[in-house]
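Exercise 7b. Backbone tokens:
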């Protein structure tokens, strides 16, 4: 497994995709989500992002907390998130 200080956020179909620390995590996203535009803030699994939705003309600030998602996947959040210092948008 490759460890890196950078993780990537993207979406596909009705899922948000978070790739970091050698693992890819997918979780449900609103069906109206078109794409993520920008990461405004990241710290210890908490993200503030700009997301573009089909029904809105402009991007909207959204919040993603990875801790409950990782917990539901029975992953050790502290170990998984520790090396990640930055999150970028992955273009598809």
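Sequence design result:
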């Amino acid at each position: 497994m490759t460890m890196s200080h950078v993780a990537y956020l993207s979406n596909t179909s009705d899922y948000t995709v978070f790739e970091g620390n050698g693992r890819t995590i997918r979780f449900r996203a609103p069906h109206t989500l078109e794409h993520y535009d920008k990461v405004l803030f990241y710290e210890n699994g908490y993200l503030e992002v700009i997301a573009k939705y089909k029904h809105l003309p402009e991007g909207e600030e959204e919040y993603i907390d990875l801790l409950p998602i990782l917990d539901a996947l029975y992953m050790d959040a502290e170990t998984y998130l520790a090396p990640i210092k930055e999150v970028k948008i992955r273009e598809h």
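Instructor comment: The chain has one domain: 6-89. The longest helix spans residues 66-72.
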